[in-house]
Amino acid sequence: MSSVQAPFATIQDAIEDIRQGRMVVVVDDENRENEGDLTIAAQFVTPETINFMAKE
After folding, report:
1. What is the pTM of this model?
2. How many domains does the chain have?
3. pLDDT for the residue 53
4. Across the chain, what does the average pLDDT equal?
5. How far is it, in rounded angstroms, from Cα 14 to Cα 38?
6. Is residue 15 situated within a structural domain?
7. The dihedral of CA 53, 21, 41, 16: what is its sign?
8. At 38, is the secondary structure helix, strand, or coil?
């Protein structure tokens, strides 16, 4: 049987990205809304990031 790589980052990787000021997409379960939300730490929010979130 071959190994299958998960299409998502680990929680630890996502936390590190957030610490570094990067946006991450947090997704819910496919049995719920099956959607994702852009997330960024508050201290890194700029007008440009808000604009990106509103458009994308």
Report:
1. 0.73
2. 1
3. 93
4. 89
5. 12
6. yes
7. positive
8. strand
pLDDT tens readout for residues 18-34: 999 999 999 988 888 88
Q: Are 16 and 9 in contact (CB under 8 A)?
A: no
Expressed as residue numbers, the domain containing 42 is: 11-55
Q: Tokens in use for 22?
A: 């990067």
List, in sequence order, every beta strand (DSSP E) within 1-56: 24-27, 36-39
Quote the CA–CA distance of 28 and 43 in Å, as a whole number: 24
The reply to whether 35 falls in a domain is yes
52 to each of 8, 21, 22, 30, 33, how far by Cα in Å? 22, 15, 13, 25, 22
Beta carbons within 10 angstroms of residue 23's beta carbon: 16
Say if CB 17 and CB 10 are below 8 A apart: no
